Every structure is written in C-alpha cells, then in structure tokens.
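Collaborator request, handled under Task 6.
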Amino acid sequence: MTDLTSVLPGFPTHQYVRLLPKLEKNLVTTTDLLTLDCAEVAKRAQLPLLDVKRLCNAVLEALQQNLGVTENEAGNEAQGSSMLKKSGKDIVNYWNTLSTLHDDLDRALGGGIPTGYITEVTGESGAGKTQFLLTLLLSAQLPAPHGLSSSVLYISTESALPTTRLSQLLRTHPVLTSANPKPTLDKVISIVTPDLESQDHILRFQVPVAIERHGVRLIILDSVAANYRAEFERPGGGTGANMAQRSSELVKLGQLLRTIAREHNIAVVVANQVADRFSNNSGTGSGSGGGSSPVLNRTTQSSPLARRSAGTLPSSSIPAPHIPSTNALPPPPSTLFAGTPDPMSLDHQQRWFTGWGDDPHPTPASLQNLKTPSLGLIWTTQIAFRIALIKKPVYGPGLAADEENERGELVLRKWRRWMKVVFAPHVAPSGPGVQGAVEFEIKGMGIAAVRKKGDVDEEDGILP
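Structure tokens returned to the collaborator:
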C-alpha cells in the first residue's frame, strides 16, 4: 500500500498496521481495494476477509469525504428524499425568477433567471456581460414579479464593483426610478477574490454567513474563469496532472454552488469568458474541396538522390510506366464521407452546447468568429442554464472626411448584440445561429431589446 498515503494523506493507517504490510508485499494498491472483490483481495494477501472488508469500506468512505461526495445521514435521509419528491403545486410555489427589466428579454429567458440553479452568462469582451449582471443586482432588490426583495452578493475575481455604473442605472432606468421601495447600493455586498484559495474560503464559509445574516437571494461570480486561468494556465503548466487537478477543482466548485443554490433557493449567476475556436471548413460540409482527396491532388515530389540518378541514366533505357490519371482512380473510402464529421467527436457536439457554430448554413464571416466558453466540457456539465451574448460588427461607408473612404473601403460603424439561450432546464433553446436570439443594445438606462428592422443584412452585417 505504498500509494495509500499519497492518495489519502489523512487516512488513519495506524488502525490497520497489521494489514498494510501484507497488502504492500502482495502489490495490492488503493485502486485494487476499490475495484476488486474483497474476497479476492483477502485471498491474494492471505488476510481475514472481515478485516479486508473493513479496510475497503474505510478507504471508500475517506475517499468520498475527500471528494465531497458523502451519503445522507440517517437524520437527513428524509429531508433529502423530500427535496426530490415534490408535487406540481410545490414546484410552482418554489419557482422564482429574476427579471432583466425588459419584457422581450424575460420572455426569451422563460420569465427570467431562475432560482435554485447555476446560470452562466458567457460572451467575448464588450458583449454586455457586466451590464447584464449589474441589471440583475438591482432587479433582485425589487418585489415580485421583477425580483426577490432581497440583498445581493457580488463576488469579483478581476476588478472591483463598478458602483458608478450602478448609480447611473438607478437614476435613469424607468423601472428602477418608479419602484417602491427603490433599490439601493446598501443592499449590494461586494467581495474581491484574487486567487483560488480565497475564493474557496469565501464560498465555503463567508457566503453561508452572508445568506443567513443579510438574506441574500442572488450570488454573482464575475468571472469564474479568471482565477483558474491564472492558476492552471501558466507557461509550462499544461501537463496532464495539472489539467486533472483543474478538472477536480471545477467539479468541487460546481457541487458547492449547486448545493448553495438548491438548499437556500437562491440564484447563482456566473460570468464566463470565451476563447477563439478554429473550425475546419470541410468538417461543416461546406468546404470547397468537392470531395477530392488531398493525397491525389498534391504534386509528386522526388528526393535529390532520385533526381540525380534519373539524370545520369539515358531516357531510352527505362520504359515510361503507364500512370492512370487521377480522374480514372476511384476516391478512397475516407474521402466519401469527408463532409460528414464524426457525430461523437467533441468538435461536432460542442456546436450545440457552446452557443457558437450551430448554424447549418454558416457564412465565411461567422466561421471566422467562432468562440468557445472557457473551462471546457467539465464546467459545462456543472451548470444548468447557459446564456450566450453574441456580438457582430456592422460595416458601412465611412464619413466624407475619412481618408480611408477615398478608396471605397468599408469601416466599422457599430456592433450588434444578441442574447441567446443555449440550454436551460425550463425553456427551449433559441435555435441555430442568431435567428431565434433576441437582439439588444446597451444604453445609458441599461440593456434593452431591439425591434426588428429591415435596414441591416442579417448575414453580412453591412449597412447600405
């Protein structure tokens, strides 16, 4: 059992001093204790069966506690089952949502941001994530149906809370100015977590105290990827053990946030960053290869030795072989399905849970603007609701005084933004591309949906 102390450093090995030497002599590892039958381990190490069973159960229990996966105690078993068994009336009464303070956006979100779940708001820089979260900080203080009449907790991992922007929203937003009682900055609790250690301490110890003491019903973590990038994406840190540790930390964070959201019936909203995703055009079925094989289309190259040998021999001494044309050769089997990607590959599946790349007929511009939410598939399995904020540039003719416009070049005129539901437990996804997404704009009074207009081309984003 040479690996027991490394797998479980706090395991009480002194209670099993008589068993461990024989297990180590017969090369029995911790994995064997968890996967093999106790009778087989006892026979292999020549130990009493009951002692081996007791050791296996102790190792399993210690490993579950270390990972945070523990079974309900006898006193909490009834409580755990009651949380899973609820009538339709109980679910309706238990259901609460936070409003974005705009009817079109709330309608697309199925009423708003639900309590009891982890909601992720992802998008690139400048897409409107911070504006979206600041609106929720103020709407949560409103009474139903807009909010929860509660205090809010803002956990920042990058910069301090933008109180200047919050004050502007309080002065200019029509719903907030006419509310009674009006939201205030006094009910916004702000904490800064510069690293993972302080973040874990705050979530485990300070957040439960704040919930009980201040009646917090909304927790915002902005952003969830910043500390993990600083900790695990250092130069030279992309090893397998490093990535496995990051995955374990993400699972613990997801379990902790789900427990907080479920037990206290609060809304947990996290902001996430995105990274560029490079897509192969042939994988989407819209490539220009026409099903031809790259092996058949490439030119034949010969080595310098072969060219020198061919130059010393007379041309009449070697008969020219008959080489069939590439049109006469049948295409290899692998190229017959070049336009159909592997349906089980991550590159194919992630189009439906990232928010980008699910358009069945993508344009060249959209293929160059593919994004992927940070922290990968492991973090995606920890959340219940993903909202993607997508922005696209709109180009048009420049001003008359523009020097660049003399050559007829298009210049960036503005940005268009969409809010897209990628997946959710209570509302259907928005659909492929931005066809079913809600376009919004950022104003001084906050975020607001944009009415449909016909003066902008949806595909190319070019103003007349």
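The cover message to the collaborator said: "Residues 4-67 form one domain. The radius of gyration is 30 Å. Please let us know whether this matches your experimental observations."
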